[in-house]
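Budget justification note: compute hours in this period were largely spent on complex prediction jobs such as the one shown. Inputs:
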Amino acid sequence: MADNQEPGQLIIIGGAEEKDGDCKVLREFVRRAGGTKARIIIMTAATELPREVGEDYTKIFERLGTEDVRIIDTVTRDDASSSTYLEAVGKATGIFFTGGDQSRITSIIKDTELDTLIHKRYAEGAVIAGTSAGAAVMPDVMIVEGDSKTNPRAEVVEMGPGMGFLPGIVIDQHFSQRGRLGRLIAALAQQPAVLGFGIDEDTAIVVNQNVIEVVGSGSVTIVDVAEITHSNVDNLLKDEPMAICGAKLHILPDGYRYDLKNRKPILERIIQPLAAA
Amino acid sequence: MADNQEPGQLIIIGGAEEKDGDCKVLREFVRRAGGTKARIIIMTAATELPREVGEDYTKIFERLGTEDVRIIDTVTRDDASSSTYLEAVGKATGIFFTGGDQSRITSIIKDTELDTLIHKRYAEGAVIAGTSAGAAVMPDVMIVEGDSKTNPRAEVVEMGPGMGFLPGIVIDQHFSQRGRLGRLIAALAQQPAVLGFGIDEDTAIVVNQNVIEVVGSGSVTIVDVAEITHSNVDNLLKDEPMAICGAKLHILPDGYRYDLKNRKPILERIIQPLAAA
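Corresponding output:
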């Protein structure tokens, strides 16, 4: 719930979340953004089909009972200073980044007034969510693009600046569905973060300060390279295969939690309240 | 090298090994099986195209200088008692299982005279190799079939008895190329072994007693669940997602070695002899 001056939450979705039926992941977003009283902004910067995508999400959020839903379609950086947009975002309790191309989000919004304002709303308690490309932009360093179904090599992934909502980690999406372990590890090896989150489709991590909770039908794969015993990364040319020894691996489904500060799963299962069933 | 009464070696290949050009992985098999003096048997039980597949491998092994290459195409269990076949296998220094369907290998050969004899030749020093389906059959419990690109759930993999050359582990093949982390972990969770080896295409593990060495252009992903801090596997229904906390993950490319007994990578790089370059 926003407007209570507690820090906000992030909902980082691995793409292809269920849009008919129960909509468990999107339901979680709406509930945490304020439920039927939420004021939701749909950010369509990533997609080349902003109208269709925006309207699809609008219908879902309205079906769940939220009356105040607005689409913001920034096409240029100028759009990201539009006073109409800024006014709407200034009141938002939930801001949702759609899928598409993550570079479009950063190139249009990063370091604009809109960017500053979204971060301000987040600090004030708004929920920031993103799916697929909208998930990719959450860290300070993001996967711009890369190859799936490969072993880790430097050349399989291109990194770039992200939106910085969750610094110090790496996010990959469509994780199991596209076979992205190699890509996640290649990304991890190329910047200072030691924690990589591979988020499955129809699955999200809810980040509430240092506690991460998994929601959805798939799993979240966490690779922790903080205490590796060996890596050959410093000596590699671009097309050579990486070696990593002693990484830690956790695979967490719905209801599991993870302590981001101590880098450990929280091993008591959550009992879901009936309302969230 | 066989016929020296030292125990044999296994060469377990993740499929799609290079068959033109340098043939690094197949070259390793031929060299270890006795080089130009090797007596090689190609076992085509797994494939429905035994003639084509057998002839392809014959050409490669002959190109590398081995003159004594024979194809054994067991179609029925009766074939696996053929005295001609048994005589040939009794003298073999290298036995190579082709790809295809791993169930065909076990259903035709397991617990036959041929099976007993191959194990005897292995104990006497022969090199046993297998690619793809031929790799899958190496453990005592094998992946019969399963889904790729999924998170781990019991239903994604079917296990069955393997040929038992390398007990106590799980092998998966085409690992990175088909996105099989979830499948490997689902397999690991369903039998007593704690070590899973995901072998990439054009990549092999050479097993020489307790030392495993990686050869080829891809990587070997090792998942060690011996010291996990949590798993939900005992309470799961078939379609529910598994949780695994605190598994160990190693990704090892060509030249890296692993100590099977102590379950640790051996962290001195091998300097390849010029001949193997």
